Amino acid sequence: MTDILRIVGLSAGYGPLGVLHGINLTVRAGERIGIIGLNGHGKSTLLRAIAGLTGWQSGSIKLNGVEIGGTRSQGSGRYTHQIVRMGLALMPQGDALFHGLSVADHLDSGAYTSRAWRERKQRREHVLGIFPPLQKLLGQPVGKLSGGERRMVSLARGLMDDAKLLLIDEPSLGLAPKISKSLIEALMQIDLKDGAMVIAEQNLSLLDGKVTRLIGLHAGKLKGGATTTDAPLTDPPNRLH
User: What pTM did the predictor assign?
Assistant: First the structure.
């Protein structure tokens, strides 16, 4: 199987704080990976590091074979737009929505690439098939929606582009168990084709038996389930920066 994501020796943090320590992880096409851990142990930082959003980081991160990692000491988010265009979508913890904009506005904002924008109407129909309750809410301001509805908007927005790697941060955060379960079931029904999905989650029971692999994250280190490698770090010619 093709490696969608390959991480070697990743360390990352914010200011003087080191959060991740020597992370090795490989995610292959078709896989759904669950990253399980308590708050404060690095789940969100791992996803943010892949997207280039941490304060500093070092180590190799390859997305579809192209180096997007390396050493950065400043400029959080400087290359994130390029990484998104290469096929990454991050659905952040806490949704990061604009309460005055409608559901339709949020979905259209997820059609980031030129191709996705041209096809946004068809893509909207596709994501509404995954999250049917949003169909009747397209004209509603997001600020008037329930917590579960806002979470669906955040997830649906992330599905509007051409992402090969879906990074989903704490989809159950703050939601009732029944709603959390329905959201996870919807995510499991997404056809990944030749892509992959990584879900960071506290609730082990939501993902147990549903994902390809469960990997623990404790104190900034992965615990079991990760495909590791001792290959040396390289600086290939197709590096992002």
Answer: 0.90
Question: Of 57, 58, 47, 37, which is closest to residue 5 (Cα–Cα)?
Answer: 47
Question: What is the mean pLDDT of each successive set of 10 residues along the chain, which is 241 residues long?
Answer: 94 94 97 95 96 94 95 83 94 90 96 92 95 96 95 95 94 94 95 95 95 96 64 37 44
Report the C-alpha gap between 207 and 35 in whole angstroms: 9
**CA 66 to CA 68: how far, in whole Å?**
6
The H or E element spanning position 114 is helix 114-118
Question: Could you please report the per-residue DSSP string of 226-240?
Answer: -----PPP---TT--
Q: How far is CA 89 from the centre of its chain?
A: 6
Residue with tokens 């943090």: 13
**CA distance linking residue 153 with residue 69, whole number of Å:** 29
